[in-house]
Specification:
By secondary structure, this protein is an alpha/beta fold. A nine-stranded mixed β-sheet has the order 6-5-7-8-4-9-10-11-12. The protein has a four-stranded mixed β-sheet with strand order 13-14-16-15. The protein has eleven helices and 21 strands. The protein folds into three domains: 47 residues; 204 residues, P-loop containing nucleotide triphosphate hydrolases (Rossmann fold, 3-Layer(aba) Sandwich), CATH 3.40.50; 162 residues, Ribosomal Protein S5, domain 2. The chain starts with 7 loop residues before the first strand and ends with a helix. It binds adenosine-5'-diphosphate and magnesium ion. Magnesium ion binds next to α3.
């Protein structure tokens, strides 16, 4: 008798294996492997052909004509910026973010913009009724006769609708609520999401319609369940930020048509999620700086933004705690070890907490010096000057390294009316900012409370 075939699939990343394992070797998730039923295995086999590239003869690259990308504007300066200059026809984009961050709000507004620009737009929602969406559209002023709403969860109905009119833009809200009847598994499961994304990809490419997919994010920051989605789509954008503050950042993680360096900055108000006007003074309040606060300027894509970093250093009872929000915890541990070693600070007996204002996540090392300044300020319970900014990457040896785009950062500091900066090296260009060079961590102490 033939042995029954078994297949297990990771519900987080889609990894498949014939043996059950407690931990997925691909994404390290625990207990995420689920056994697929015979119908599911059969379905995968039957549909596996569709993932293969179209067969044809290979050609020398010199004989191939390049694609000409004709982008069009989404009507939002910030979204265009993250997309790399606008929407590319036929592209499939995933927008992820935690609940309530503004995914539906942003895309309904974009749908409204494009409808007003004479495109037929389809907004598919498996989450809200047409009436609810209409209510939001009224608030966002996104009402237009070219904007069609389809409250639906069945993939086949959605596909029929897409073929029925000459749509120029489609929004799917959200991928986890769509359901393909041909796939024998629950909505939101890896198999479902894979099939649906594949179908959407095929339709986007064949009809040259850009499709935006909304995806929910789990606590740990991955798109709920299916990380497979990220590999399949052309562009992946994630919302960041604190849902308590009105600023939201949209960061690119993958882009087949442009760079992922840029970040879109939006602000939430009652008329929706609009392009943020100016970043000046949005992430700090000069008047309210206390001990434990330090200012620095980070680069978000091509834009310098002044932010406040906060540290709280308190004597610890028992095991010293270290925790940070918006800053890498390992880097914090490294900086603390360095302070102990180079400055003889007894931080081993202190709890240290770091917070970056406005829900910003620091992804570059230039804020190291500001973190150190904030820690020293909190430890000594002494305020830093509200006129001084701290810039520099700190190495394991305690050397303060140069940061990229120093001139641009100093220009922003100047524009915003600051007077002094602690920098790793003398700037090449003239600036009205008084720069104090601290090329060693130990030197920071000399300048810190000026
Ligand atoms: N009437 C309103 N006035 C101002 N802001 C609102 C209003 N209704 C909803 N919001 C904002 O919109 C957010 C919900 O956004 P939404 O686009 O539904 O999020 P998501 O689709 O990412 O779950 C809420 O967190 C709230 O901040
Ligand atoms: Mg929503």
């Amino acid at each position: 008798m033939a042995k029954k075939k078994t297949l297990f699939e990771c519900q987080a990343c889609g990894f498949q294996t014939p043996r059950w394992m407690g931990k997925c070797p691909s994404c390290n998730e625990w207990e995420s492997l689920v056994e697929l039923s015979t119908e599911q295995i059969k379905f995968l086999k039957d549909s596996s052909g569709i993932t293969a590239a179209p067969t044809g003869k290979a050609k020398p690259i010199t004989d191939i004509d390049e694609d000409h990308l004709v982008r069009f504007s989404s009507g939002s300066r910030e979204l265009d910026l993250v997309l790399g200059g606008g929407i590319v026809p036929g592209s499939l984009t995933l927008i992820g973010g935690s609940p309530g961050i503004g995914k539906s709000t942003l895309l309904l507004k974009i749908a409204g913009n494009l409808a007003a620009a004479n495109q037929k737009v389809l907004y598919v929602s498996g989450e809200e009724s047409a009436g609810q969406i209409k209510l939001r559209a009224n608030r966002l002023e996104a009402n237009h006769k070219n904007l069609y709403l389809l409250p639906e969860i069945q993939l086949s109905t959605v596909l029929t609708e897409i073929h029925s009119k000459a749509y120029g833009f489609i929004v799917i809200d959200s991928i986890q609520t769509l359901y393909s009847e041909e796939t024998p598994s629950a909505p939101g499961s890896v198999t479902q999401v894979r099939t649906i994304t594949f179908e959407l990809m095929r339709i986007a490419k064949s009809l040259q319609i850009p499709i935006f997919i909304i995806g929910h994010i789990t606590k740990d920051g991955s798109i709920a369940g299916p990380r497979v989605l990220e590999h399949m789509v052309d562009i992946v954008l994630y919302f960041e930020g604190d849902s308590n503050s009105e600023l939201r950042l949209l960061r690119g993680f993958k882009n087949r048509f442009g760079s992922t360096n840029e970040v879109g900055i939006f602000e939430m108000n009652k008329s929706g999620l609009n392009d943020a006007k100016s970043m000046a003074g949005r992430f700090f309040d000069k008047e309210k700086l206390q001990s434990g606060s330090a200012l620095t300027v980070i680069m978000e894509g091509s834009r310098p933004i002044i932010i406040e970093v906060q540290a709280l250093v308190a004597e610890s009872y028992g095991h010293a705690k270290r925790s940070s929000t918006g800053f890498d915890n390992n880097r914090l541990n490294m900086l603390l070890a360095l302070l102990e070693k180079k400055l003889d600070l007894p931080l081993g007996t202190h709890d240290v907490f770091i917070n970056i204002s406005g829900g910003i996540k620091i992804t570059e090392p230039s804020a190291d010096l500001a973190i150190i300044a904030a820690i020293l300020s909190s430890y000594r319970d002494r305020e830093l000057s509200a006129e001084t900014l701290f810039l520099g990457e700190v190495s394991l040896t305690g050397e303060v390294r140069e940061v990229s785009g120093l001139a641009q950062r100093l220009k922003e500091i100047e524009t915003q009316g600051f007077k002094k900066a602690i920098v790793p090296a003398k700037p090449l260009e003239q600036s009205s900012i008084k720069c104090f060079v601290a090329d060693e961590v130990s030197k920071v102490v000399e300048w810190i409370f000026i």
